[in-house]
Amino acid sequence: MPLPEHLVDAMQAKREAAEAEAARDRRRDLVRTALECWGWCGLGLLLVGWSMHTTDLTYGRVAFAAGVVVGNGGWLWSMVALYRRRERRGDL
Predict the structure, then answer these.
(1) How many domains does the chain contain in total?
(2) DSSP letter at 92?
(3) How far apart, in whole angstroms, are the C-alpha atoms of residue 33 and residue 25?
(4) Residues of the chain whose pLDDT is less than 50?
(5) DSSP single-letter state for residue 90
(6) Residue 90 Ramachandran class (φ > 0 left, ψ -120 to 50 alpha, else beta)
(7) How confident is the model over 35-51, as pLDDT tens digits?
(8) CA pair distance 31, 16, nearest whole angstrom
C-alpha cells in the first residue's frame, strides 16, 4: 500500500532541509579549515621572515626553526582536526 501523497511530500521536505543544513555545515567547516591553514602558513612565514631580519644568530635560528615547525605543523594539525570532525559527524 503506497503512502499518502501529503506524507511523502512532508518526508521529502524534511530530508531536503536536513541535507541543506548538512551541506552548510560541511561548507562552513571547510572554509574554517582553509582560513586556519592560511593563518598557520602566514605565522610560519612571519617567523621565518623575522629570522632573516634579526641580528642575533641564536634568535634567528630559533625563529627559523619555529617558523618551519609552525608553518608545516599548523596546517597539518588543521587538516587532521578536519578529518576527525568529519569522521565524527559521519561525512566519511
Answers:
(1) 1
(2) -
(3) 12
(4) none
(5) T
(6) left
(7) 999 999 999 999 999 99
(8) 22
CA distance linking residue 30 with residue 26, whole number of Å = 6
- Return the ∠ at Cα 70 (arms to 64 and 74), rounded to 5°: 160
Query: What's this model's pTM, rounded to 2 decimal places?
Result: 0.77
**Domain housing 83:** 5-89
The string of pLDDT tens digits covering residues 70-79 is 999 999 999 9
Which pairs count as long-range contacts for 76-79, CB under 8 Å and 24+ apart, including other chains?
77/40, 78/33, 78/36, 78/37, 78/40, 79/33, 79/37
Using alpha carbons, list the distances in angstroms from residue 36 to 9, 32, 39, 92: 41, 6, 5, 21
User: 67 and 47 in contact (C-beta within 8 Å)?
Assistant: yes
